[in-house]
Amino acid sequence: MIDLCQQAPSWIRNFAPYVPGKPAAELARELGLNPDGIVKLASNENPLGVSPMALEAMRSALTDIARYPDAGGFDLKRSIAARFGVDVAQIVLGNGSNDVLELAARTFLTPGTSAVYSKHAFAVYPLSVLAIGATGLETPARDHGHDLDAMLAAIRADTRIVFIANPNNPTGTFVRGASITAFLDRVPTNVAVLLDEAYTEYLDDADRYDSIRWLARYPNLIITRTFSKAYGLAGMRVGFALAHPDVADLMNRIRQPFNVNSVAQAGAVASLHDDAYVARSRALNRDGMRQLTEGFARQGLNWIPSYGNFVCVRVGAADTVFQQLLRKGVIVRPVGGYGLPQWLRVSVGLPAENERFLSALAETGVRAA
After folding, report:
1. H/E stretch holding 125
2. How far apart are CA 276 and CA 214, in angstroms?
3. What is the pLDDT of residues 204-255, one digit of tens each?
4. What order of strands is seen across the sheet that includes strand 303-304?
5. How far apart are CA 342 and CA 357, in angstroms?
6. Which residues contact 78 (CB under 8 A, 6 or more apart)?
7. Backbone angles phi, psi at 309, to 5 degrees
8. How far apart are the C-alpha atoms of 193 and 253, rounded to whole Å?
């Protein structure tokens, strides 16, 4: 390593970067495949594509891209506030929800402090913590999901944030609303609880809870949402956080002024008004989840019941099966880096894409592990 790099903090030099799902174009180049024949079920994207209303709004916004975007995101914040019944002062906009996760970490963490997160939880939590030089406290999982009692017990005097993903990525597990409020009742008020709800739109009505209403009761609660999943805007990178106005003010102080571009803002505003598109996305996901899990059952494979738009299936030698699927033009996600070396995470796709994956998986000869 060159001398300059030795000057970087040790905590930067010693941790591995986030590894995204393999792009279809990259696989096509590597294996000489036709990109039009590749099925990508690796990144939890919406297989319906973008909302028609959002697409029209973004096309209109292109005429003004020579100008900087609205740094304050006035129209988008006003739309979020109206949709979710919050004050504009409670909103923090981000370049995807990953951005607001990092803003929360940068706001409250320093070297010498700690954050709590669960085993098998989203990789951005430890990355955000370790990039600051803080200490990550990983708690054991319960049934591949969050053990809130263990997370509460892990909180130390120097803990500043607890991260909870609900539903959780990559396992798809879910914690009931009553369990979360019971947890919030016991967490010290000087510890932020970041509730990452990137997949909340996919929940069935019976599973829903009103976390936004909790903000008035728990000023240490931060809720993050994204337009990348059910709203179909993954490529535009736009998300947001909802928090107590004092917390949002601190996060906005360190937010880059133009972190959400003008086209993304226009698309997000329109997406909030396209209820029919979100309803179609939810219905497609429900049917696709059934298609995948019934296929797993026919092949004798175990899976983790999921509340998101993806599902983890146990295939044994997951890296080997992953490579076999790549050669068949099917991209899924190995999750060995999440402590699940025998599992693959599969995003729900269109019916033909799901069937293509199931057929390719059967051709690998995989058996229940």
Report:
1. helix 124-132
2. 27
3. 999 999 999 999 999 999 999 999 999 999 999 999 999 999 999 999 999 9
4. 303-304, 310-314, 343-347, 333-334
5. 18
6. 88
7. -110, 35
8. 20
- The C-alpha atoms of residue 185 and residue 220 are separated, in whole angstroms, by 11
Q: Which of these, 223, 227, 355, lies nearest to 281 by C-alpha position?
A: 227
151 and 141 Cβ atoms separated by less than 8 Å: no
pLDDT at 369: 59
Answer yes or no: are the C-beta atoms of 232 and 48 closer than 8 Å: yes
Place of tokens 């607001």: 100
Neighbours of 98 (CB within 10 A): 21
Structure tokens at 326: 């790549």
Give the pLDDT confidence of 80-126 residue by residue, as tens digits.
999 999 999 999 999 999 999 999 999 999 999 999 999 999 999 99
Whether the Cβ atoms of residue 102 and residue 125 lie closer than 8 Å to each other:
no
Q: Would you give the DSSP letter of residue 227?
A: S
Q: What is the mean pLDDT of residues 355-361?
A: 97
CB 227 within 8 A of CB 274: no
**CA-angle at 252, arms to 249 and 257, nearest 5°:** 150
CA distance 127 to 99: 12
**Chain centre to alpha carbon of residue 180:** 19
Domains of the chain: 3-49+276-363 (3.90.1150.10), 52-274 (3.40.640.10)
Contacts of 121 (CB under 8 A, 6+ apart): 146, 163, 165, 168, 169, 338
Annotate 139-192 with DSSP letters as a single string.
EPPBTTB--HHHHHHH--TTEEEEEEESS-TTT-----HHHHHHHHHHS-TTSE
Residue 118 backbone zone (phi > 0: left; psi -120 to 50: alpha; other: beta): beta
Main-chain dihedrals φ then ψ at residue 137, nearest 5 degrees: -110, 100
102 forms bridges with which residues in the sheet? none
- For residue 126, CA distances in Å to 15, 116, 147 come to 10, 9, 17
- Residue 233, CB-side half-sphere exposure with 13 Å CA sphere: 34
Decide: 214 and 181 in contact? Cβ < 8 Å.
yes
